[in-house]
Write a structure and sequence with these properties.
Layout: E1 7-10, H1 21-31, E2 35-38, H2 45-59, E3 66-69, H3 72-78, E4 82-85, H4 92-99, E5 104-109, H5 112-120, E6 125-128, H6 145-155, E7 160-163, H7 171-176, E8 181-184, H8 186-189, H9 194-210
Parallel strand pairs: 1-2, 1-8, 2-3, 3-4, 4-5, 5-6, 6-7, 7-8
Family: Belongs to the thiamine-phosphate synthase family.
Function: Condenses 4-methyl-5-(beta-hydroxyethyl)thiazole monophosphate (THZ-P) and 2-methyl-4-amino-5-hydroxymethyl pyrimidine pyrophosphate (HMP-PP) to form thiamine monophosphate (TMP).
EC number: 2.5.1.3
């Protein structure tokens, strides 16, 4: 499966206000989101599986993958397209043995060494985390900055997605540094218009590729 990581939406229902996750995702997709990650740290497992299935029923006919954060069991139960794992989550070798060869496995990299190891162990893409400072996650390393993106791009050949403090003001710069796309949470899910916010971000991603 060839994945377009250009504009990668990470969900967070606590930041959606009165809107449902599916409504925010639908609006964001209309604006140009090309990949969606279900990340709901505090959702009971049955609810998370149900939400994953609802998202898949909407996204799959559009050819947009759903990635599940952390939870290999949820991804398998819901028949999601893959999982995204952090440095303290299930090891990629174990996840691959459970999920099989056909599903996507993304790995968060907080350093060049993390990224090189992820590539060697068979990751499908790397989330460079965090590029900039962010309030969405508090348990993260120091920001890698644009220089960090460039260095990871120099060292690995996998698709790279920058996450952490990404906005319309800096998305193009992240792509120019070598990222294949940007991942966002609050910049879309908390926006007054997720569709318009996604469209603006997508425009800046494309601008970064053109320069």
């Amino acid at each position: 499966m060839r994945i377009d990581y250009s504009l990668y939406l990470v969900t967070d229902r606590s930041l959606c206000g009165s809107r449902s996750t599916i409504d925010v995702v639908a609006a964001a997709v209309a604006g140009g989101v090309s990949c969606v990650q279900l990340r709901e740290k505090h959702l009971p497992v049955r609810e998370m599986i149900a939400e994953a299935r609802q998202l898949i029923s909407f996204l799959r006919p559009l050819g947009i993958p759903l990635i599940v954060n952390d939870r290999v069991d949820v991804a398998l139960a819901a028949n999601a397209d893959g999982v995204h794992l952090g440095q303290s989550d299930m090891h990629i070798v174990d996840a691959r043995s459970i999920l099989g060869p056909g599903r996507i496995i993304g790995i968060s990299a907080e350093s060049v060494d993390d990224a090189v190891t992820a590539e060697q162990e068979g990751a499908d893409y790397i989330g460079i985390s965090p590029v900039f400072g962010t309030m969405t996650k508090t348990d993260i390393a120091e920001p890698l900055g644009i220089a960090g993106v460039r260095e990871i791009r120099r060292c690995v050949g996998l698709p790279l997605v920058g996450i952490g403090g990404i906005s319309a003001a800096n998305a193009a710069e992240v792509v120019r540094a070598g990222a294949d796309g940007v991942a966002v949470v609050s910049a879309i899910v908390s926006a007054a218009s997720p569709e318009n916010s996604a469209r603006e971000l997508f425009m800046h991603v494309q601008s970064g590729r053109a320069n």
